[in-house]
Amino acid sequence: MLRFLGREGVDTRHVPVKPGFRTSAVLLGIEPPDRFPLVFYRDRPPDLELTIDDVLAAPLDRTRAFLFTGTGLSREPSRSASLFAAERARRAGAAVLLDIDFRPDQWHDPRAFGVSLRGALPLCDIAIGTESEVKAVVLERAADVAVAHSQIAVAAVLERGPRALVVKRGPGGASVHLPGQAPVVAAPFPVEPVNVLGAGDAFAAGLLYGLVRGWDWHRCARMGNACGAIVVTRHGCANFMPTEREALDFVAARGGF
Description:
two-stranded antiparallel ribbon; 8 strands; alpha/beta; UDP-N-acetylmuramoyl-L-alanine:D-glutamate ligase; 2 domains; globular; 14% strand; six-stranded mixed β-sheet
């Protein structure tokens, strides 16, 4: 992975290496037209071994945007490291984003996910998730995700401190919810999916691209939609993320922002 990032021009000087821990693997099933079951193999994954010392070694004082995930809060030492990193980035004036990223099999109790996420939200400027993930944030009982009203869940997330909640809706596009305002709705880019693995990460990358360039919410979310749409048409994940030029050309060919 470090070699791949290096070939892509990514500065990897601050990527910690955890000897003795295993890079995670994912088994993807492709069942056309719309089933893509995933099995995650995470035996002692190195990403959950990030420490506060790793955070202190990172250049967060020079960061414009910092994103961390709900899965990173699932156990120690990653939980404390993630929260500490969010604190440092916020103090440095960076935009702090939380990808809600609810993966029930990574938690000893799915309700612990809601407890951890609700505690992290006051550190965040922007939260990102699917509708079911947003509902999971308010989870206190096993049935809450199924019965929770999405608008109530959105309000509950915003009440915790973020200035924006971005809800990914797959083929339905995305919506940006701001306190006291009507949602900003970004239309999707219709495509024929062949693999959904990596779509959420691609969306976040496109959204961040727009944010650091000062774009408005609609344009940012459309860029996220475009990056997600490109990835789902390819048989791959990280190695198949679009380049800047590919994403911008994709949008321009489909009517622009």
